[in-house]
Amino acid sequence: MLSRTASNLFWLGRHMERAETASRLFEVGARITLLPNTAEGYQNEWQSLLRATGVSDRFAARYDEVSEENMEKFMIFDRDNPSSVASCMHDARESGRIVRTALTSRVWDALNVSWQEMRGMEPGQEDAADLADFVARHAATVHGAIDGTQLRNDGFHFMKLGYALERADSTARVLDVKYFVLLPRVEFVGSGLDSYQWQVILRALSAHRAFHWAYGDDVSAGRVAHFLILNDESPRSLMTSVLEALSHLDALVRRYGQDVPHSARDRAQALADRLGSTDIEDIFDEGLHEFLSDFIREIGDIANRVQADYFHGRG
Amino acid sequence: MYYNEMLDGTKVREAYAGLSDWVDQMPAEIRQMKQAEAEALFRRIGITFAVYGEGGDPDRLIPFDMMPRIFTQSEWRRLERGIKQRARALNAFLRDVYGRGEIVRAGRIPARLVYQNDAYEKAVVGFVPPRGVYSHIIGIDLVRTGRDEFFVLEDNCRTPSGVSYMLENREIMMRMFPELFRGNRIEPVDGYPDLLRRTLETVAPAKCQGRPRVVILTPGHFNSAYYEHSFLANLMGVELVEGADLFVEGEFVYMRTTEGPKRVDVIYRRLDDAFIDPLTFRRDSMLGVPGLMDVYRSGGVSICSAPGAGVADDKAIYTFVPEMVRFYLGEEPILKNVDTWTLWKDDDFKYVMDNLGDLVVKEVHGSGGYGMLVGPRSTKAEIEEFRQRIKANPSNYIAQPTLSLSTCPTFVNEGVAPRHVDLRPFCLCGERIELVPGGLTRVALKEGSLVVNSSQGGGVKDTWVLSE
């Protein structure tokens, strides 16, 4: 497969997943500001959210006030924000357009329709939950089309690898938002508010029902963190995402043989091993934020190695 | 009086016999619904590009008219013979002018028009590409003026576009009106991508081992015809590459893949000569592959169409194509040329100046319906303004009589009305010369308009050839 094609497929996966993350984060933000929790007012939560996604400078340069209205514009519609839903959907569709030959018509159709519909929307029409639903629905259609119709060849693995790495990154960031919101106010730990916020996080990750199936009703920090970090049955957990990335990297190594470099696979294997031998107490002892920052860096490193192993084309 | 392709007076012609009931029986609301459906299909497939490199909004849709344009088998056979004959002559001409130049030595074509032509590539003089074929895909633009009267408007020997429309128009017609296709009366065109791939494989270079690897080279996804490039690559089962995906090492060209470099044998390029190799042509080109021409000249890769093929489809060279048919093939041309006055000749210049109001004047290198004057449809002031432009640089222009382009019934707001059409069939040249039964019919949707270009309000139609 052409290196450029592989790279576009990888980014198609990443951008679709990133679009979903942006809308989830916005929904988390909107829900958390509904809580009567802070002395400083709601701005604090939105600020944390901007910091967690690493785009607060960009926001500050374009908007003077931190409000839900501006956040909606910025996180959902703003094409100057590369992480906004609109930018990600556009980029995913553009990657798809470039590699049309590697996509089934169903996948292209889903990508194209999602972008056309996104393009037809305006800020202020829908509330946060409906926006998140809209994005999740389109993301699911694209994902379903990929799973249902794409040949299980290297292109498929590059797309799914993009999804998996982005999902690992995204769950880590959503968790980090919770950290930023909660930890500066230690007196709330273990309170009803704390547990409510964890519920919000679970909802935002569409994992709220799944959590209750797995752990019952007791929503405590330790359990939610375990569910979203280490549980390999939880669909968006760091563990599941890393294992999924690893399975696609393994498939590529099997397909291409040992002569093609595989440093990304080796790195992903090491990360999976490390997660497997960690328990949730270790993570809280180390500090959730430190653990998550480390993890996000590690995922970035794997992505760089994917680039070096496969997208350079040597020569 | 214009030749009406469907009606002979009030009588329906043979080719359209099965169709007139279909048209008559379609209620207006069904028609509007189907038209909207067709548009949605095109938009959904993503087929929104300008035909023939006319530029403009890449997301613009070209209007699709559901009323097909139809040829009988015997009409088509004659056209086919004429097109193949012309294709053979054009390739013979290219082989000649990059070799001994017999046709120039014999005094049939002025040396200046060939050797000082901008499209003449000195870099390939003396090099004969595999099978002596220079132009592998030739799009020949035809107009009809009578039952047996077909004229060639121009030849496109470089990288003619529009074939994806031929294929998609058919696809959409078959999806929307399957009942019309029952009984196998209509010759299929969907063999084109396979035929193209096989044609390109037959011109693999001497050094190629095993089954040739064919790729399509595109300027990139910002190009207005990118959709077509990717559409063809998909149907042909070949990679669509950009310049940066290829590199030259030693005697060969390679593409960058996830498994390392892979050798490439045949490049179907949709990129102008000037951009394919910055070491040989334009130094500032970021689109091409440095060193490509050296590999080409040493038989390591085939480039289709061959660099330099453009010298055969120049509007000034056009006037000599019938001469080429006689000179190289010893045959009489089956397809006619439109009478053409070349303004650098004094007699022609005088005639054109005296009759400007009746003629069509075009720039030698113009395309897309821009920079032309349609005398009978222009105001006095426009004619006078154009006259000054011609006087400033006569050799930049040719003039032709205003042809009575045939009309084909077309769906318009008021119902069905005749509109002028042309035809571009696509002729493939490799080991053999072949074409699929069909082509792209363009239609001037504005009442009375003779300009079919999509940039000037033109649309497209499905083109049928009936089997016997």
Key features?
heterodimer, A: 315 residues, mainly alpha, 15 helices, 0% strand, globular, B: 468 residues, alpha+beta, five-stranded mixed β-sheet
Describe this protein's structure.
The complex is a heterodimer of chains A (315) and B (468). Chain A is an all-alpha fold. Chain A has one domain. Chain A has 15 helices and no strands. Chain A is globular. The model of chain A has no long low-confidence stretch (mean pLDDT 87). Chain B is α+β, with helices and mostly antiparallel strands and 468 residues long. Chain B has 2 domains: 7-333 and 404-465, no CATH class; 339-401, Dna Ligase, domain 1 (2-Layer Sandwich). Chain B is built from 15 helices and 23 strands. Chain B has helices at 19-24, 28-45, 73-97, 102-105, 111-115, 163-176, 178-181, 192-201, 226-236, 273-276, 292-297, 315-318, 321-329, 346-354, 380-392; strands at 7-8, 11-12, 64-71, 137-144, 150-156, 214-217, 239-241, 246-249, 252-257, 260-264, 266-269, 302-304, 336-337, 341-342, 359-363, 373-374, 397-401, 407-412, 415-424, 426-429, 433-435, 440-444, 458-465. In chain B, helix 9 links the parallel strand 6 (214-217) and strand 7. Residues 49-56 of chain B have low confidence and may be disordered. The interface between A and B is medium-sized, with 29 and 27 residues.
